[in-house]
Write a structure and sequence with these properties.
62% of the residues lie in helices and 11% in strands. By secondary structure, it is mainly alpha-helical. The protein has three domains: 3-74, Orthogonal Bundle (Arc Repressor Mutant, subunit A), CATH 1.10.10; 96-165; 174-244. The longest helix has 40 residues, at 134-173.
Amino acid sequence: MDEKEFFKLVGNETRRKILRSIAHEPKYLFQLAKELERSQQHLQQHLQCLLEKGWLIQELVDGPHGPARKLYRIAKNLSVRITLSEHSFDIDVFDIQIGHQSKPIDNLHSHLEEISNDLASTLSHVVQKDQQDYAEQIQSLNDILDKLGSVESFILGKKISITGELHETISMKLEGDDHRKDRKLAYTIFRSSAPITIGLIQKEIKTKRSELLASLKRLNEKNLLPESGLNLLNKLEVTLSSQTE
């Protein structure tokens, strides 16, 4: 993907918020408007831009008591690598292929071993300063980076697949608008790379501590809490109990 097109799309704050919201789960326009506190007309312009560039797809879903509505989903799996140094500034935007579309690595161990051998050979050549061929060395290093990129793409694709399975499980166990906050809480707990704290969750979910505790208990009843979520539940119970004494 062209870097100019990429930054044009993600450089807009509203489009970033739309993508972040829909990445959690597909949304209707009225749901986005309520969550992002923007008018539907304003959001429609940004949605159309993301649709035209192929970042989103829309599907018509029959309403229970009215006409079909457009449901928006993420269409692309992308990764971005930015390298900034004293002598270079490189931006690489590439698609992550998952499932049957990806080129599977039949033997990942052998692939990594091959890269390791190539790297050792290249570095050995680089330290021979009296026989430097800069163009050849740079090309060799680029080849190794390409091979490392294939491993990275494989791992990212696997992560996306597992995350998709997790979301399907959460959606099946917590169906309907009544459980929207519960689903968002579950997504946040499972996907957060930072330590889970009450403050972090409240910032993301925007709810009272008593409501947060009730939501955590519902998730626990449906076996949708990892260890970090259980720790949060226990801590919140102790905190609220001490406040009422």
